[in-house]
Write a structure and sequence with these properties.
By secondary structure, the chain is an alpha/beta fold. It folds into two domains: about 200 residues, 3-Layer(aba) Sandwich (Rossmann fold), CATH 3.40.50.720; about 100 residues, UDP-galactose 4-epimerase, domain 1 (Alpha-Beta Complex). The strands form four sheets. It has a six-stranded parallel β-sheet, with helices on both faces. Helix 1 packs across helix 8, helix 5 packs parallel to helix 6 and helix 7 packs parallel to helix 9.
């Protein structure tokens, strides 16, 4: 049987997908990486390789694309994120869980070889230790997004143990990038704030100034994702989801770092419903298991991330 050379990225037009598709095409070849989403992709994604409209809830269409493109790997990024999910409870549950089921079933049936599915720090809750949250600890999420991600983690572990499905996952912290737009998450302030700073506007933050959360710059998130997927199967010992971390900061600390580059930048704080969500999440993560199992280590710091974000956004604005 010929090797399955196709790679399918579902949710390719989102914040992560926009950058992951381009990185995967560089790795596997433009024509081998299919970007798929309900909404159109960036011009860069559409021009560099195949793009298909796909609702992951449409099982027949999903099956068709897997066969058509000889797909061996699926990256399932389609989801409704934390803040949006609180407003759309049932649609969020259905998309975040049944979409995963459909892909897991394709792997169980032998149609695909390997799955990447992202989890999140949202699986943790108010009773979770907040400092250096361990890989294995209390997980009592209090949001629709977190509940769906925790359920997904357990189904991933089940399908691996019961059926041998090679499914891999990372618990992303807040992600910061300049290419894709935020997708309705509680950590989105850490992207929006840069856009306001570069455009010379003041920023009103929807979290309090001292809300410390774990964050990661998108190049590190993409590298972590691809490193996990490329690691030998025997090194992947966690089949629910791995903690991965880079740095933690508060909105106030980020604003101070931005002012090192843009001295007049002004930030005010007006916490809304997302504050309660953030208060239930860790302030830092212990990712030593990921480091030991497959060699994870972040490259960017708060300072180098800030400098790089401002450089790219400024260049895009001119």
């Amino acid at each position: 049987m010929a090797a399955k050379t196709g790679v399918l990225v579902i949710g390719a037009s989102g914040q992560i997908g926009t950058e992951l598709v381009l990185a995967l095409r560089e790795q596997y070849g433009n024509q081998n990486v299919v970007a798929a989403d309900l909404k159109t992709a960036s011009e860069e994604v559409k021009e560099s390789g195949p793009f298909e409209l796909l609702d992951v809830m449409d099982r027949d269409r999903l099956h068709q694309l897997v066969v058509q493109y000889n797909v061996g790997q699926v990256y399932l990024l389609a989801a409704l994120l934390s803040a949006t999910a609180e407003q759309k409870v049932m649609p969020a549950w259905n998309l975040n869980t049944y979409g995963l089921f459909y892909v897991l079933e394709l792997a169980r049936e032998g149609l695909i070889d390997k799955i990447y599915w992202p989890s999140s720090i949202a699986v943790f809750g108010p009773n979770t230790p907040k400092l250096n949250t361990p890989q294995s600890t209390i997980a009592e999420p209090s949001t629709v997004y977190g509940i769906s991600k925790l359920a997904g983690e357990r189904w991933c572990a089940y399908y691996h143990k019961r059926y041998g499905v090679d499914v891999r996952s990372l618990r992303y912290p807040g992600l910061i990038g300049y290419k894709g737009k935020p997708g309705g998450g509680t950590t989105d302030y850490a992207v929006d704030i840069f856009h306001k700073a570069v455009s010379g506007q003041a920023y009103e933050c929807f979290l309090s100034k001292r809300t410390r959360l774990p964050m990661m710059y998108m190049p590190d998130a993409i590298r972590a994702t691809m490193s996990l997927m490329e690691a030998p199967e025997e090194q992947i010992k966690i089949r629910s989801s791995y903690n991965v971390a880079a740095f933690s900061f508060t909105p106030e600390e980020l604003a101070i770092e931005i002012r090192n580059h843009i001295p007049g930048f002004s930030v005010t704080y007006k916490p809304d419903f997302r504050q309660e969500i953030a208060d239930g999440w860790p302030s830092s993560l212990d990712d030593s298991v990921a480091a030991a199992d497959w060699g994870w280590k972040n490259e960017f710091t708060l300072e180098t991330m800030t400098s790089d974000m401002l450089y790219h956004l400024s260049a895009m604005a001119t």
